[in-house]
Write a structure and sequence with these properties.
By secondary structure, this protein is α/β, with parallel strands linked by helices. Helix 3 runs parallel beside helix 4. The protein starts with a helix and ends with a strand.
Length: 364
């Protein structure tokens, strides 16, 4: 890794600190270098606050003149919740800027790179571009497709089962694995399950421990069957509950859920079931950036069948459950040929207690 890559890697590491607090904005990090030393560091800390470039400039102070800026995303050139970063960069006297990835989706007459060049700043792009694009994959998906980034999560035995033939599933994964899931929930806009899982497991879906944001609990429930005495409904004041139903759900059941504090979202149906693509489009219009889907099998199967999953997070426990009627994590229609199966890229394997955690993005 050359010096440019190493400095951009530092900026990317800074950017990642903002995960869970900046959405629907992108995660951005920046470092300022002068005389081969880093004199300023900054990252976008929370939605509505200063951008990474401004924080790095403030950190470096008056020493910025003639320095070089490394930033993970093209600086903005427009007035939003904060003034344009290109203006701050020019006024600070920064001589050159290295950008990881451009932000071509902004509706501006001129992009940030063009404006910097007109201001006399040298601009170079493409340093660790793939890494920067992967870091902000949820942001880019929301901008490009108006849908949130979907992470499918499940815990299973070595023989690929998420529950026994009696439906028992507590607990397949280890304490460390479950703690890791809570940490992830604490960075999500939403946690989604099907109503079958909500009834069978009666989960809370909240984050135990410190959370960067309070996730909405999203229940896909075509006929509004979610029990009013469920833990989800009872804790609606702690974390909001969205129940996605179809027109087949009776007005009375919808009213009861609303009266209990839930938001009832009526979505078009496909063969009597919630149209998941339309649901995700609706959530995207509301700036939901990241959603963690925790089951059940029919829900995950439908998402995979319709190419709506972006990332998989799988906890594999050193247990064998067996049984022809035990439950698999992904059902749906599936694929007729192995060659057509969903494949994962950029696989990362971790060990937590005795579990193996497999994490990868869906290959398109």
């Amino acid at each position: 890794m050359n010096d440019h890559d190493q400095l951009m890697k530092t900026a990317l590491d800074l950017a990642a600190i903002g995960r869970g607090t900046v959405e629907p904005n992108p995660m951005v990090g920046a470092v300022i270098v002068k005389d081969n030393e880093i004199i300023g560091r900054g990252y976008h800390e929370a939605y509505g606050l200063h951008h990474a470039e401004v924080n790095a400039i403030n950190d470096a102070g008056s020493n910025c003149r003639g320095a070089t800026l490394y930033v993970t995303l093209e600086p903005c050139a427009h007035y939003g919740k904060t003034p344009p970063c290109v203006q701050a960069i020019s006024q600070a006297g920064i001589k050159r800027v290295y950008i990881a990835v451009s932000d071509s989706h902004r509706v501006e007459v001129k992009n940030g790179a063009e404006m910097l060049k007109e201001m006399g700043v040298e601009v170079y792009s493409g340093i660790l571009e793939d890494e920067a694009r992967e870091l902000n994959a949820p942001f880019f998906k929301l901008i490009e497709e108006s849908m949130p980034y979907i992470t499918a999560k499940w815990a299973m035995s070595l023989d690929g089962r998420i529950a026994t033939y009696t439906g028992d599933s507590r607990w397949i994964s280890s304490d460390s694995s479950r703690a890791y899931v809570h940490k992830i929930r604490g960075c999500m806009d939403g946690v989604m399950i099907g109503v079958g899982t909500a009834i069978a497991d009666d989960p809370l879906l909240t984050c135990r421990g410190e959370a960067k944001r309070i996730s909405k609990r999203i229940i896909v429930d075509s006929k509004a069957k979610l029990p009013l005495d469920s833990k989800l409904v009872k804790t609606v004041k702690e974390a909001g509950v969205i129940v996605a139903v179809t027109s087949q759900a009776s007005e009375d059941k919808q009213k009861r859920l609303r009266d209990a504090g839930c938001e009832v979202l009526v979505v078009e149906d496909i063969n009597g079931l919630v149209d998941l693509r339309q649901l995700l489009k609706t959530l995207g219009q509301r700036a939901f950036t990241n959603i963690l889907v925790e089951g059940g099998g029919r829900m995950l199967g439908s998402l995979f069948d319709n190419s709506l999953v972006d990332k998989a997070l799988v906890f594999i426990a050193p247990k064998v459950i067996g049984g022809k009627n035990s439950i698999s994590p992904v059902s749906g229609d599936g694929f007729a040929l192995v060659s057509d199966a969903v494949q994962l890229d950029n696989m990362i394997l971790k060990k937590m207690d005795n579990d193996i955690v497999a994490e990868g993005v869906i290959k398109r």
